[in-house]
Amino acid sequence: MRTRRRGYPQALTLAAVAILLAACGRIADELTPDTATGSSSVFYKDLDDVDVSGPFRYALNVGADPRDVYLVFTNPTLGDLEPPALQLLSVNGGAPTQSHLQSFGPLVSSDSRSLATGNEPRPHGFRGPSEFLEWEPGTSPRSFPGSANLVPGPEFYVPPAPGPGPGEYSLGSVYQFYDANLELVDATLAVRNENVATANGPKTVEIWVASDEYSGGVAGNPAVNDDTANPFDVTRGMAQELANAFLSSPTGDDIYHWISEVFGAEWSAGGSPPYTIGFSELIDGQDTITILLYPILFGSNDTRGPGGVVGFFWSKDNYANEPVSNRRIMFYLDSDSYAFPCNPGEPCNFASLPSWEIEDSWPNDIVSTLAHEFQHMINFHERVAARGVETDLWLNELMSLVAEDFVEYERTLAGPRGVDPRVFTGGAAGNPGNVFGRLPLYNAANSVGLADWGGSGDVLESYSLAYAFGAYLARNYGGARFFEELMQSGSELSEQMITDAILAAGGSAGVTMEALLMQWGAAVVLSDDSSQSAPTRLNSGGWLDSSSEGGEPYRLGSINHFLYTPELAPAQQTGLRVVSTSPLPAYSKLIYRVGSGLTGTIDLEITAAQNMDFAVVVK
Predict the structure, then answer these.
(1) Do 612 and 74 touch, CB atoms closer than 8 A?
(2) What is the average pLDDT value for the chain, to the nearest integer?
């Protein structure tokens, strides 16, 4: 947490600092004025030189041409900060008018949040519950929403009978797996893609389907569903397409190759690897990855059908002696979502379902979930098991959301950006009114804190913020190479991990979270300008290219936040003094639009908390 600035000794109190700075003439109740030049300008304002115990003044000359002006306030600490207040004193020497009022305010409102939450045609399934990523070995028994209070013990835990291990069962074999609620599920081995060459050695993927959800079907024909009584049955053809999407070709055209090239290995094959002290009870090395398709029902609001929790990775299965470990390297995916052929917003007649295609919205979301959960799997191996360090939940989720971003171009299917690369083949930012992907909810809730996961009361808002910040980092600080370095960091401190990765990926030294939050906010405001360069670039007008350390190319599509609905626009205000009612949570920002079509000099009175800084954006 940032509690002091400029490296002052701990014994030097803030009051003493204020006295010393005042004696040197550095404390002031106004900021140095700025003058905008060019098509856009960004000014970063460090409030260390300003007395923030009361309101202070700031003047900005935007020139004779009409300009839009924004302020981006940031909280780079790990605690809440009191919200800023902003008053427009004058515009070009005169009192503000009603027209100024109409374009003045923070770019977030409860109404726009409701709109974003209630109007999401793209599926927004929950990726692995945070309880699973934060689980620690030895903490069983576990009790989950929607399940009985299960107490593992001899009367509960039924270990599989000694026999073949992963990769050694024949097709059609039935095996019992513990699911999200620690209940046993009978599953049938539907498909196996064996010994596919990868940079991490030969790998095999097995697709197991809950036996009462598996219709068998016709191999190679994913449209066949021979159990009309259950619209969510998975056929063998569907299972084969999932296996092929994850791991199928030594040429590298699959999720396994694309994600492991950036983030690393999911496990070590060929015997027990040299894992860190304290993890001697991990399973031995293996080269088979298990994917279990079954109807995930986790929590009281999760019901049969698409949506809810659509997939997860749970590290309990990497431990040999946990009572409810499946003792495999494995994912869990929701069979109801994967088998659902109807697209959101379209009528769906269960008596006459359309033919299923893996490109349909819900199956596509499941394949994106595979990329997301694969990063979590690799993160556990590369950081917890191999390096003995953990990753903060918000940063771990950010890395997984960007993993989905990295495979959008390769898969030619819409990812969290919500823009279909089959339509916008050149990587453009899309059309106005876009309601797909993660960014509509970001527009509505962009002041949510990154480190305050789920703190707003809606975890989907946390997903949207994490993706937006991850997308910014990827497009400004080295793309694939940055995320390689992030995974390999030996630190557990998120800010240290990020700043070290920026330097290792070829960026400048000394980039702080304080600077990144301001730059990110400025990039959001300038995302409708395709001429921007790093560190305020989200939209190049096309694909943004990067490569892994090994030379593998990755393309990221352009982002224009002003093309999404709800629009990135201020909430209606009732007066010229704007006071946010909610504290700014950890690692958050709050964007104000001061005005649209402004000319001349703008005078502002600002109230801000200690440790809060802001960026001024003119366009």
Answers:
(1) yes
(2) 83
281 and 165 Cβ atoms separated by less than 8 Å: no
pLDDT, tens digit, 9 for 90 and up, residues 217-231 = 434 434 334 444 567
Band of the pLDDT at 291, cuts 50, 70, 90? very high
The answer to whether 474 touches 534, Cβ cutoff 8 Å, is no
Chain segment 321-334, per-residue pLDDT in tens? 777 889 999 999 99
The length of the chain is 619
User: Which of the four pLDDT bands, split at 50, 70 and 90, describes residue 273?
Assistant: low
DSSP state of 584: B
Predicted pLDDT of residue 617: 97
| 428 and 447 Cβ atoms separated by less than 8 Å | no
User: What are the DSSP calls for 38-60, one per residue?
Assistant: SS-EEEEE-GGGB-TTS-EEEEE
Torsion-angle region of residue 525: left (phi > 0), alpha (psi -120 to 50) or beta? alpha
Provide the strand spans (E) within 327-383.
329-334
pTM of the model: 0.88
C-alpha to C-alpha distance for 559 and 542, rounded to whole angstroms:
9
Q: Are strands 288-294 and 329-334 parallel, antiparallel or unpaired?
A: parallel
Could you tell me the fold of the domain covering 29-107+570-618? Answer: Jelly Rolls (2.60.120)
Q: How far apart are CA 414 and CA 432, in angstroms?
A: 16
- Cβ burial 3-14 (10 Å sphere, 16+ → b, else e): eeeeeeeeeeee
Q: What is the CA radius of gyration of the chain?
A: 26
Please give the Cα distance from 215 to 159 (Å, whole number): 27
User: What residues are paired with 175 via a beta bridge?
Assistant: 187
Determine if the peptide bond prior to 535 is cis (ω within 30°).
yes
Tell me the C-alpha distance between 163 and 532, whole Å.
60
What is the distance, to the nearest Å, from the Cα of residue 473 to the centroid of all Cα atoms in its chain? 11
Lookup: tokens for 546:
């990067």
Question: Are 301 and 309 spatial neighbours (Cβ–Cβ below 8 Å)?
Answer: no
**Burial of 369 (C-beta count, 10 Å sphere; 0-12/13-18/19+):** buried
pLDDT over 80 (residue 608): yes
My answer on whether omega of the bond before 585 falls inside 30° of 0, hence cis, is: no
Phi-psi domain of 492 (left: phi exceeds 0; alpha: psi -120 through 50; beta: other): alpha
In Å, how far from its chain's centre is CA 541?
23
Residue type, 126: F
Spell out the domain ranges in the chain: 29-107+570-618, 138-390
Report pLDDT digits (tens) over 572-588.
554 555 555 678 999 99
Token pair of 281, please?
Answer: 């009870």
Nearest 5°: the CA angle 589, 595, 600 is: 120
Measured distance CA(358)–CA(311) in Å, rounded: 16
Tokens of 346: 């379209």
Cβ-in-10-Å burial (0-12, 13-18, 19+) of 1 comes to exposed
Contact 271, 309 (CB under 8 A): no
Give the model confidence (pLDDT) of 68-114 as tens digits. Answer: 999 999 999 999 999 898 888 888 888 877 776 666 777 765 445 55
- Does pLDDT of 376 surpass 80? yes
Residue whose tokens read 């098509």: 39
Give dist(CA 360, CA 197) in Å, integer. 29
564: β partners: 434
Evaluate whether 204 touches 167 at the Cβ level (below 8 Å).
yes
